Every structure is written in structure tokens, then in C-alpha cells.
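task queued by scheduler; priority normal; single chain, no ligands, no partner chains; default sampling; output format set to C-alpha cells
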Amino acid sequence: MTRAAIFDLDGTLFTGHTWEGVMRYLRLRRRNRLLLLLLMVTHVPLGYLARLGLADPGKMRSAWARHMAWVLRGMSKAEAQRAFVWIADEYSIPLLRSDVVGILRECKEQGDRIILLSGTFEPLLRLIGSRLGADAAIGTRPELADGKYTGCVVGPTCQGEGKAELLRQYLAGPGSDIDIALSTTYADSIFDLPVMEMAGQAVAVYPDERLAAVAEKRGWPIVPKRSD
């Protein structure tokens, strides 16, 4: 059986938010700006409500990941791919955390299968993964029909329990020889807990306050190490 190192992207491998890169590209290219405005008007208030404890933050994150696909509506596969290349190379790669990328490379040198697991659009995540030498990328899957993106997603969003479900599907897929009990997950958010609990080892990377508390209670390593 093969051991895997499973890395979240936003907040873990890099300091930014992928959706900000998507929005920068759309504004720069003046593409789908009305759909972008609709997304912001309908979802940004939900973020504030979640921070105030007046909305479920997990459901909010899942809805955001699902509805981000709106901004791809009408794009051809080739047009979206050009956008994904720009976002990967001009936005995401410059914001990588060098220390966490170093951990990823050490894992690869030790023979681990490198998997990126993120709410990011899967085609974009595959590009970022290719830059990092990842073996697989599992993300939120935007729907294609007749060569164009529909603005919907296929299957669960790669958030929370949906992230765990997509990982289970991958592990059960043809040719998979990964032993999750031998594998390690790296993530920054309490909402990654369903995935972190699947693996034999979990590492909290630049964790939010709630995940840091769980990591300390369970004896999980924390990156960077905290001074007493």
C-alpha cells in the first residue's frame, strides 16, 4: 500500500484565497462582471452574518464554493483554461508558503503520493498541482455541457463533509492503492476536520483558532511550531 500526503490549498499551501485570483482575472478581462457582482451581492452579507454567529459558517462556505461556478458560466473550456493558467501563475504561485512547500517536497522525496484537496475549481487545482509536482488534485468540479461551463457544479463541493466524500471516492477509485491509515493530512481550518480525522496523522498548518485548539488537545503537530 502507498502512503499519501494530502494538502489543502487556501490558507495552507498559500496565503491567499483562490476566489480573489478568479475575481482579479474577471475584472482584468472584463468578463462575466454581472455574474461576479451577483455573487458578491448575494454572498458577502452571508459571510458577515456567519462571523456574527447568525448563519452557519460551514453551509456558507459550501454555498460559496458551489456558487463560485456562476462566474464561469458561458466560458468555453479553452477560455476558462486560459483564465486558470493566469490565476495559477500570476496569483497563486507567488503566494505559496515556502515552508509548507518544503514539507510537500520532503514528503515527495520520501515516496509519498502528493494529493491536493481543496474547494478550488478542480481544473485550476490541477494546474497548481502540476507546478508543485502533485500526483493528484481533488477539487470542486464545475459542470461542462456542449463545450461550455454551465455555472453549476458536478457532485458535492470540496468543502467540509463534501471534501471527505470526494476523498473517499478517490480512494475507492480504480487503481488506488493508498492506505489512508498510513497517510497524513495538512490543513488550516476547523472545516477540514472531517478529512483530517480520516487519516492516520493530521498536521494543523497555520491553523485557525478552533483548529489549533483541537490540534493541541489531540497532540497533532502544528506548523509553524508554537513557542511556549
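post-processing summary
- The chain has a mean pLDDT of 87.
- The first strand starts at residue 4 and ends at 7.
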